[in-house]
Amino acid sequence: MPSATVRQLYKHKKETKMKKAKMYAVLMLSLGTMAAFGNAFGQGDTPDPGDTKAGYGSAVASPQPADAKKEAAAPDLAKGTVGVKLTEFRIEMPSSISAGATTFKITNAGTETHGFEIEGNGIEKEIKPKLKKGRSGSLRVDLKPGTYKVYCPVDGHKTMGMSLKLTVK
Ligand SMILES: [Cu+2]
């Protein structure tokens, strides 16, 4: 094998590597510059109404608690309504709810078709038809205090994790 070719190949490889490294450095530099500019703008004297006494530190931090508050308030469901989210392979909902007429608002946020069934204390009800991906529906059940089994009736999904114990108080 002619070693000159090998050497040349090696050299070429090395150059490519160096080019990449250089480009990366330039990219990082410009990102850094942008961040610096961003900071400069962000901390400028944009007036922040309602937060005058606290100063810069908390002005920067204030958007976070506001967002968290908004998120917590989002599931603003009427009394007797319980939100349920179905994914692979999980049922996301409270594990304890109050007795009475209950409407389960069920959303399939997964990719497969899922169902929702509640069983216990002489009750056995499921949402029909089952929910295809992206679909929502509701199931109304009058619940007495006690424990219920909640699960997805699609074959195999229960054992894969779509099952939980619901306490009704
Ligand atoms: Cu399922």
Structure description:
- The chain is of the alpha+beta class and 169 residues long.
- The protein folds into two domains: 3-45 and 53-71; 75-168, Cupredoxins -  blue copper proteins (Immunoglobulin-like).
- 34% of the residues lie in helices and 29% in strands.
- It has three helices and nine strands.
- It has helices at 3-42, 56-61, 63-73, and strands at 81-87, 90-92, 96-97, 100-108, 117-120, 123-126, 136-143, 146-151, 163-168.
- It has a five-stranded mixed beta sheet, with no helix packed on it. It has a four-stranded mixed beta sheet with strand order 2-1-4-7, with no helix packed on it.
- β1 and β2 form a beta hairpin.
- It is globular and about 35 Å long.
- The termini are far apart.
- Residues 1-7 and 13-75 have low confidence and may be disordered.
- Residues 114, 152, 154, 157, 162 line the site of copper (II) ion (CU).
